Amino acid sequence: MFAHLGKDFKRHKRFYRSITSVGIPVILQYLVSYSLNLVDGIMVGQLGEESIVAVGVANQSLFSLLLVLFGIANGAGILIAQYWGSRNNNELQRIVGIAAFSGLFVTAIFVFLVFFMPEQIAKIFTKEQKVITLVASYFSIVCWSYFGQALSIIFSCVFRSIGSAHIPMMITFVSLGINTLLNYLLIFGKWNVPNMGLEGAALATLISRIIEAVLFLQISFSKNHGLKMHLGQLFRISPTSLIRFYQTVSPLVASELLWALGVTIYMVVYGRIGIESLVAINISYSIQNMALVIFMGLNESCSTLLGNLLGEKQQELAYQYAKRFLLTVIGISIVVSIGVLIAKGLIISQYQISSKARLLTDDLLTIFALMLWSKACSWTLLMGILRSGGDTRFVFLIDAGSTWFYGIPVAILAGLVLNFSVTWVYSLIFLEEIFKIALALRRMLSKRWIIGFS
Fold this sequence. Notes:
Elements: H1 2-11, H2 13-45, H3 49-85, H4 89-116, H5 118-125, H6 129-142, H7 145-161, H8 166-188, H9 198-220, H10 231-234, H11 239-273, H12 275-311, H13 315-348, H14 355-386, H15 392-417, H16 422-430, H17 432-446
Helix pairs in contact: 1-2, 2-8, 2-12, 3-4, 3-6, 3-7, 3-11, 3-12, 4-7, 5-6, 6-9, 7-8, 7-9, 8-9, 11-12, 11-15, 12-13, 12-14, 13-14, 14-16, 14-17, 15-16, 15-17
């Protein structure tokens, strides 16, 4: 058995190297990010409920910008992975330039709105005047950090797409560590630093984002790194590059925004079922996100490796590795599911919630564990395999179609009309993953997703 595994590793060394060089750093990056964000939330929580709500309102407002930035970054990553594989560094740098300028332009519009209209934006989410005042104060400082965040999101994707996922991982560790330390100092006024409260949290975010962006740019333009960016090349944007970029990015941005709207509708339905249902959903989602981090990393490694292979014109090997990634994800999902089933009781016991909410959370996590394989497979097929080939329009149609023509109608019918329990509504919504798998698997086997850009 071990001899067979050794031969398999030698034969498919590049496949396993992709998982270790891209997947594992991404998994660690997300785990550390989630953990330190939790610590930051606890520190802000010491300031009172109004401060918690104010930061929540600001982050909810930021959510729409982040979705657009992730769409731009992921679209750029698809092209960059192929250009890196074909060693077309000039076109690669043009795509980086288009992505960076596009991200900064969208961010500038958002910053203008939140800086000059903070109270009007806050009133969309709350009517509490004290919270609105805190949001305006917080926005006046933290909004300038969004430029650094935009560059960080885009360059993180750039480095992952060329197989250097360890760079954004290390930069994120540094940035989050600085942010956590500054939060402690500025929020509470430690070590002779002025006590700034919520404004201190905003300033800590601004400083850490600036440092993060500077580190990304410094490494990107360093001659010691394989990327070797040249400032002049970023401005040599051709019409062909622009058309190709926006044809790839547009479906991704639309898909992200429609997905976010769909999730919002799901949460409205869950909220209407009852407060215990909403509590159970929120707790189960936080636990699910930690479990899904593994598959985020695997999808990044899948997309990067397949994109590089397609850039090298190795279509058949890319197809074979796509199937191998899918089988690997199924195997890992079974292990993760068992882990969730074993740990769920201990995790739920840490929350001070009613017995009904506790039982509902337990049921939801059981359903999640039993259906995790379907979520992992649909993610890999759509985000890891089909996207890597540039088949973003098909991904958009499957993603948006399953949510808006199945998921949302079923949620409204089951939750608001038929008054089903939250466990039944959640289970029925989860079945949309089966539809995604059926359509995406057929697309993968047809090889029509392989679209070369290089």
